[in-house]
Model the fold of this input.
Amino acid sequence: MKKEVLEKFTEVFGDAEGAKVYFAPGRVNLIGEHTDYNGGHVFPCALTIGTYGVARKREDKVLRFYSMNFEELGVLESSVEGLKPEKEADWTNYPKGVMWAFQEKGYSVDCGMDLLLFGNIPNGSGLSSSASVEVLTGHILRDFYGFEVSNQDLALIGQYSENKFNGVNCGIMDQFAIAMGKKDHAIFLDTADLSYQYAPVKLDGAKIVIGCTNKKRGLGDSKYNERRSECETALAELQKEVEIKSLGELTEEQFEEHKLAIQDEVRIRRAKHAVYENQRTIKAVEALNNNNIALFGKLMNESHVSLSKDYEVTGIELDTMVEAAWRQEGVIGSRMTGAGFGGCTVSIVEEDKVDNFISEVGREYEEKIGYAADFYVVDIGDGPVTF
Done:
């Protein structure tokens, strides 16, 4: 891939002298969905697919951006001065947001750059193409300027840029999983205090299969912020009865005891998902550590039911794909992953059944939805690298 992106950089920007190649992965969350902004646990891993960048520092203030995924947009120009989000800036609002965030945090980003990107993450799929671009940009800036920032800092700066520059009220999980990725391990992260541990993912004879619904979704204009607001209101109502800082502090029993403090039936269901999903995630990691992959899969299935019925973030596309997956031989577990409203599913499938799984789930999905899904058999990879 390095050769291809360098050749394209030369074609677009005239030459590749002084340019370097970088990579940041995408991520998939195995379990623990919509818990990261509720002070709960998540269990994501970085993937071997992600975003490649070729970057070169400039002597002036000009920013020139080009994406091989959006070639029709051509070179988008901007300046490192007076950075602000602009509709016409399209995807470049993500790298610009990170540059702005570094400046806000007191780092001097005073020169422009030429940046070419190529992502082999399906765009809008829920595998965090935006967070991958954010961490990649932070990694490039660190390399350009010698900033003393850790990978964890890159995650926090990426989240800050998405919240404050791009207006998406996301939690920390996506950027953290990408910046802190470790080959063949998932990250058991407590989003309340950012304590984490790596857990080896040993899927003897099984593979992780991502199913992309090809229903595009944008976090900013989805109901993501609405769900977050519903949980914040539910938390405020519970806090009148219980001393907690987040929904993630409650056990299932404590929630059932105090749930009527929440004044609205819809908010009760939203909060129930946050509490029960957090506990499911804790149990799932324990199951994996005990080599009980069957229990891990069962908890994945329960997670999807909760996301569909209590949190209502799935929709016909994700439900169709997951329900088709559950009917296939060799499926250990399957659920939606990401924010929902389209995007992807994640399934653990016995290796010798993968081809049949893709064929049958794909057939059922296209028959019901009217267009095809895409499937990716993925491996767990490391965080950002420079080639």
Remarks:
- The longest helix spans residues 265-289.
